[in-house]
Amino acid sequence: MGIVQQFKWPALRLNQLEAAKQQLLVEWDMEKKALSICCNCRPGDHGLAVDDPALPAMPRPTVIKTLKFVGCLVPNVSYNDAIKALNINFSCNDCELTLSALPAEPRLEGYHLKGLVINKLIITALSENPATRPKKDFLNELKELKNLELKEGVELEEEIQTLLPKSLEALLLFNTHLLLPPVNITEKYKPSHWLQRLPSLKYLSLAEKTTKLLKRPVVLPPLASFPKLTTLILMDVLLAPMPDNAKWLKDSNLQNLMIMDCGLEKLPHDFFKGANITRIYLKHTTLGSLPDDVFAPLQSSLHELDLSNNQLKGQDLVGAVQSLNQLKILKVDNNPLGSLCGSDPYYYKVESGLPKNLRRLELRNTNATRICSDWTENDYLTEIYLDKNNIQFLWYSNLKMRRAENKPVKISLKNNGNNKNPLKIFINKSDFNQCRHESLSQNGGTRKRVQLNLITNSLACDCNAYWFRKLLRGCSLFTPEKSIHVNCTRPSGVAVPLADYRESLTCSYSGPCPTGCSCEKRQPDNATVVRCAGALPPALSWPPAAPGYPVALHVAPGTLAAVPRLKLVELHAPNNNITNIDKEDIPDTLRVLDVRNNSIARITSAAAKALLSLSEHVGYKVSLAGNRLACKCEDEYAIATLQRAKITDWNTTQCVDRHYVVDKRKLCNDKMLPTLLGIIGALFILTLAALFLLCLRPRINQFLFNHGLCLKYVLKVKDDADDPMKTHDVFISYSHKDLEFAKKLIEKLESYGHSTIEHCRDWLPGESVIQQITDSVISARRTLLLVSDNYAESKWALEEFHAAHAHAMEHGSARVIAQVAQISCIAAA
Questions:
Q1: Cis amide leading into 550 (omega within 30)
Q2: What is the CA angle 699-705-707, rounded to 5?
């Protein structure tokens, strides 16, 4: 970057009033040796003349190569003298002079440019009315001028045609009226066309809209008469119709041809015969068709072809360009081509017929409906622009780019589809896995998978978009663009970037769905999302549910009285009438349970344990606030379990007495503990007495036998081995909180060959607990009590104790064994 200094100085040599009006803006780029002087930057003023004494001189002699005067009147002397007076050295073979916004008066004449040695002259007019009209001799002193550019508002006299410097190599004329042919065209436009007087011309750009306004077409000479001409640009020039055998380009050295907005309706079949053009731009014409192989003469030279903004059909395009085996860039935007590879979106292996060596293809707004197979399987094509088309469906096969060179491919699909039917990309889990596999290992062959950079601004919000997002994030063969949006309805009405979209992406569902409900399929868990906005029908027909295909259920308030027994992954049922939650209501697939503001009074211990086991899963969320739990003594274990089950709103969940559950320390009466300890103490004393009597039993029996007392008792032999009711040796009675200690004891007993009864293992679910306690005591020869603090607090442990004690009192052969462990009060004593 050059160093640009800007100065804004008042015109000090004018009187005070004029000094307030006139101001100068000077820009000086010292590195590029460029100077710009704006004589009056206020619109409507003509400013100063270049030789006006108010113009400040440079502080020292300065070499300038690019000099620009903006809004400055022509000097009374030559520009050369005026420039020298500014202390500027401006004379070189590559110097450039620009007279921008040149006023119409005074007119530019030949003596003004006398003495200048410059390479390029640019003149633009201050306005088109009045136009700036230099005199016909204004270029007479610039014999070595190489580049001349005359832009809008500069009008030339016809006689200047013969006075243009023959040294010109580049000529740009924009609406100068010089191209406007006279009414009597026959005498003026002979083979000695005025342009043919410029033998050094290499670059020619002509624009003359008045030829169209006046409907006076222009006839240009054969380009072979310009041996050095390599670039020709025609814009807004009404060209005369060309015959079919026109050989306008034959034997020319033209490399670049642009014909734009020139009323060209058709090309002669031999239009390019004998030419060797590299780049062609035929834009904004009225071409409705092209002769087959019209570009065939250029098959070894043409590298770039732009046919944008015409009326071409697909078959005409393919027939005209298919032989161009050296074509690298093809632009055909804004033509009604239609699909170049058929209209069936499900049959994708159809080629377009376009040249195989393309690097860049632009087909915006051409009514394309699909991506052709030769654009995915191609050696060199790296840029494809298909914006503003009718492509509504894409499959993974359309996005698998294989190339001979390991270069990423860019495909732009902006503005395809519409708000009602946005672009859909069909990607599934299998495609995602295949992409990841191919990104890690490439098969042999001349073409290999390369990275795809896909650009689009609208996608359908469905489950396929989910896997496409996974593809962008997890497969290195795809690179995401920040412009990719999911076209989903939001409160703001704004589309959401795909990378930021957090909601579920669902697809339509065709299976059974309850009447009055909507059903969709969701990825990645294959869940069927059921949304019921009204009352549920009496006979419900839920979608099939399995561990791999669960149901996410959303119901309206006041429509559900019990949790459906399904493989649920989500249940959203706030403000309903659910009263109880059992273990069967908590499937192992459940991740979200929202039952706020229902009538739930009790959650069973088994259901609480099920929720606790699920609480470590990703996405787990349970909400219970707004229910009034019973909070009775029998619920103590369930509530303690729920305390650890990560309930989202547990701190605001209340009991029926409106106290928060978290504030409930004990749900059972504390007076039971002394009673239980008294019972345990009595049992302990009885046990000691029994042990004492057991130790003295032989002596007591001997005493009774010696004295002939109670012989019936002494001589009675009790052996439970033959009792059919005694099927086990020991029934283990313990609190579930002492499970680990109980397991060790059971293992020890069974290692000695004793058979045991343990309620977690041997009791049948669903049967009466009281009955199973009685059966276990009767079936065992002994009942072993694991007495502890936990045992004293357990309702069911006390029931087992009472049953064993009653049986011991009723049957002399039954025995009760108390194993005391971890009783804090005893330890303290």
A1: no
A2: 105
Q: Which residues contact 516 (CB under 8 A, 6 or more apart)?
A: 532, 533, 534, 535, 536, 537
Q: What is the pLDDT of residue 5?
A: 52
Q: What is the pLDDT of residues 297-340, one digit of tens each?
A: 999 999 999 999 999 999 999 999 999 999 999 999 999 999 99
Of 236-240, 342-346, 382-386, minimum mean pLDDT range = 342-346
Q: Quick one: tokens of 279?
A: 């780049």
- Which CB contacts under 8 angstroms, 24+ apart, belong to 799-804? 799/769, 799/770, 799/773, 800/731, 800/733, 800/773, 800/776, 801/679, 801/733, 803/773, 803/774, 803/777, 804/731, 804/733, 804/777
| Range of weakest confidence among 6-20, 88-102, 404-418 | 6-20
Considering just the CA atoms, what is the radius of gyration of the chain in Å? 49
Say how far apart CA 730 and CA 750 lie, in whole Å: 10
CB 808 within 8 A of CB 814: yes
Tell me how crowded residue 798 is: count the other CB atoms within 10 A of its CB: 17
What are the Cα distances from residue 181, in Å, to 161, 332, 592?
12, 33, 83
Angle between helices 636-643 and 605-614 (to 10 degrees): 10
Nearest to 145 by CA among 167, 163, 162, 123: 167
d(CA 53, CA 14): 9
| pTM confidence score | 0.68
Which residue in 289, 244, 288 sits closest to 268, CA to CA?
A: 244
User: Measured between alpha carbons, how far is 336 from 301 in angstroms, rounded to an integer?
Assistant: 27
